[in-house]
Design brief:
By secondary structure, the chain is an alpha/beta fold. It has 2 domains: 7-35 and 322-425, Alpha-Beta Complex (Aspartate Aminotransferase, domain 1), CATH 3.90.1150.10; 54-320, Type I PLP-dependent aspartate aminotransferase-like (Major domain) (Aspartate Aminotransferase, domain 2, 3-Layer(aba) Sandwich). The protein is 37% helix and 12% strand. The protein has 13 helices and 15 strands. α9 links the parallel β8 (214-218) and β9 (237-240). α2 packs across α10 (305-321) and α3 crosses α10. It starts with 6 loop residues before the first helix and ends with a helix.
């Protein structure tokens, strides 16, 4: 598509957008009597209008039936998990039985480490990305200490080359080859939270397996954002949160993927709980853990049905829109944003602004990260004053993420104009 650099072209794109009706499915923040530009779907997605209805439905079931709501009513709570994993399977690229909706992201990562990080002798190394999101770093550090291992001896961090922002795939693969006899696990992020770099998860998984290691991913910034095919890629496990691109609310319930090849292993190591027990005999309350023969076997506690309801509300919108359609629009929005930004970058120069999100692959997601060698916070404050929700990350990065469900091409045009003015005002 050939883009135009004027407001009328942006409006034409919005008029022709087959997904434009979905913006009305969300509450858009307002300020000074008008809708604000919310480009923070990578941090907290907006509230779907139907969230209140779905939560109220659960509250009414609770009022009508008490605990029997697990078994009675039009939508018994015991069946709710099945209604979540079906639409989620299209987003994650997995079979429904390979998905479990439970807990939050870091808790689920600890649980997956119990099952998939099994150090034996010298085969105890973990390859991960440098400057991963701090929660992942803390999870690895404390989990290894719990096992009596020194993180400094175990963790191998891959960094960008000097003067570069991105980690090269060839450097990841070279490290796998170098440490193949000591490697127990590759744990990686699907999308880097700081730069927005999308990693080749299929290639990383293949390399890890060829080295005899397990491979898992943190999909916090990938789920609902980019195309995923976890089952086809043969990924061992993955975890994600659902409050970002999946719009399921602050502190929303998380999810995990466990490949089907592990579901029937009797000796699979795990931390177990009652809710993961075989459904047909769960209420016999017998000793000896017998797991459900799906990813649900990793559940521990009774889930929050209210959080289920919030997640369900958002997934209904995804199902209605069609995730493949959302990916097409996201790609168009991203290309349009790059098109408009490039003249701004060229005009002001690298001493004032740099795009650090990779543009040379077709799998980039919604996020765009802009690095400001100086005046970054001043630019950020001016954008905020202009009614634009963006995100500041030290040192010097403003992150934005126009998402296809509720953002528009006109908002992208207005943001770039406001950005150019903010930079020009900084001396």
């Amino acid at each position: 598509m050939e883009f135009g650099n004027d407001i009328e072209f942006a409006r034409q794109l919005d008029d022709a957008d087959p997904l434009k009706r979905f913006r009305k499915c969300f509450h858009i923040p307002r300020g000074e009597g008008k809708e604000q530009i919310y480009f923070l779907g990578n941090s907290l997605g907006l509230q779907p209008v139907n969230t209140r209805e779905e939560i109220n439905r659960v509250l009414q079931q609770w009022a009508n039936y008490g605990v029997e709501a697990f078994f009675q009513g039009e939508e018994p709570w015991l069946e709710m998990h099945e209604r979540l994993v079906e639409p989620l399977s299209w987003i994650i690229g997995a079979r429904p039985a390979e998905l479990v909706v439970m807990n939050q992201l870091t808790i689920n990562l600890h649980l997956m480490m119990v099952s998939f990080y099994r150090p034996q002798g010298k085969r105890n190394k973990i390859i991960c990305e440098a400057r991963a999101f701090p929660s992942d770093q803390y999870m690895l550090e404390t989990h290894l200490k719990h096992l009596g291992l020194d993180p400094k001896d175990v963790i191998i961090e891959i960094t960008p080359r000097t003067g570069e922002y991105h980690i090269r795939t060839e450097d990841i693969l070279a490290s796998v080859t170098q440490h193949r006899d000591e490697l127990a696990l590759i744990f990686w992020g699907g999308v880097n939270y700081y730069t927005g770099q999308v990693f080749d998860m299929e290639l990383i998984t293949r390399a890890g397996h060829e080295a005899g290691a397990k491979v898992g991913f943190d999909l916090a910034h990938a789920a609902g954002n980019i195309k995923l095919r976890l089952h086809e890629w043969n990924v061992d496990f993955a975890c994600w949160c659902s409050y970002k691109y999946l719009n399921s609310g602050p502190g929303a319930i998380g999810g995990a993927f466990i490949h089907s090849r592990y579901h029937h292993l009797a000796d699979m190591n795990r931390f177990a709980g009652w809710w993961g027990y075989d459904k047909t005999s769960r209420f016999r309350m017998e000793p000896g853990f017998v797991p459900i023969q799906t990813a649900e076997g990793w559940q521990q506690s009774t889930p929050s049905i209210l959080l289920y309801a919030s997640h369900f509300a958002a997934l209904k919108i995804f199902s209605d829109a069609g995730f493949e359609n959302l990916l097409i629009k996201a790609e168009a929005m991203s290309r349009y944003l790059y098109y408009l930004l490039q003249p701004v970058v060229d005009f002001h120069g690298s001493s004032k602004i740099n795009i650090i999100t990779p543009v040379d692959n077709n799998a980039h997601g919604c996020q765009l990260s802009l690095f400001f060698p100086k005046h970054g916070q001043e630019v950020f404050k001016k954008l905020t004053a202009a009614g634009i929700f963006a995100d500041w990350r030290e040192p010097g990065v403003i992150r934005i993420a126009p998402v296809p469900l509720y953002n528009t091409f006109t908002e992208i045009f207005e943001f770039v104009g406001a950005l150019g003015n903010a930079i020009a005002d900084c001396k």
